[in-house]
Amino acid sequence: MSEFTRRRAIYGVAAGGVAALAGCTGTGDPVPGGNGSDDGDATDAGNDTDGDGGDDGGGDGEVATAVHQVGEPLSGPAWDRTQRRGICVLITEANGDGTRILDEAPEPAREFLAATDFSESVVCYVESVGPTTCHDEVAFDGVGIEDGTLVADATVQGAEDEDVACGEAVTYSAALLRVTSDPLPETARLSVTDGWGETGTVRDGDGVPDR
Q: Residue ranges under compositional bias (Acidic residues) (predicted)?
């Protein structure tokens, strides 16, 4: 692909250099809609947010959520950002096919997965992209289960403070969304909004292109 390489996409410094990255290393906000506090499941607690255990609204029943910001894209990335808003992978088993995308994930992300009880939860890996080095997190809202499908709004987050210096570089962000519900979803359908404000539907069935 002619896009930035994986390392340049994550750490690419087109305008702001290292100084721009230094201004964008905060852990970010809790999940919108009141689903945010430290879940303590992974060792990198500063990058985790946890659901309040309540109903996220809509769907087949109550849904509890927890989020871990992965901090880097795990797909390569191997998809065309001009044709799709992102990718998602629904992980329903501890050692299932969906876990392959985490083979080279940072240790805290793999610990977050290992701490998941798949008898009562699933994990959805979500990846998207933004135009600056500060577009490095994915926030979730409207999480629910509809007819066996996990639905949610996923939005790439940029800098909150206008005074923060952000380097102009295509930056891929990724997060793990743990969903605890009864019944458990079998598929996922997310409305993903990238860092340019473009929104599209992303399904786990779309798959991850070959790297």
A: 38-59
Query: Residue 17 — left, alpha, or beta (φ > 0 → left; ψ -120 to 50 → alpha)?
Result: left
Do 25 and 90 contact (CB within 8 A), yes or no? no
Nearest to 175 by CA among 43, 27, 9, 52: 27
Q: Which two tokens stand for residue 24?
A: 């964008």
Determine contact, residues 176/138, Cβ cutoff 8 Å.
Answer: no
- Which amino acid, 81? R
Please list, residue by residue across 103-118, b when 16 or more beta carbons sit within 10 angstroms of its beta carbon and e when fewer do.
Answer: eebbebbbebbebbee
* Domain range annotation of the chain: 64-203
CA 124 – CA 63 distance, rounded (Å): 14
Q: How far apart are CA 119 and CA 130, in angstroms?
A: 35
Q: Pick from 121, 123, 126, 122: which is nearest to 139 by CA?
A: 126
pLDDT in tens, 157-177: 988 777 788 999 999 999 999
Q: Are 204 and 154 in contact (CB under 8 A)?
A: no
* Cα gap 114→191, rounded to integer Å: 27
Size (the chain), residues: 211
Q: Are 65 and 140 in contact (CB under 8 A)?
A: yes
**Tokens 């500063």 found at:** 46
Of 195, 191, 193, 201, the residue nearest 170 (C-alpha): 195
Q: How many other CB atoms sit within 10 Å of the CB of residue 91? A: 25
pTM for the full predicted model: 0.73
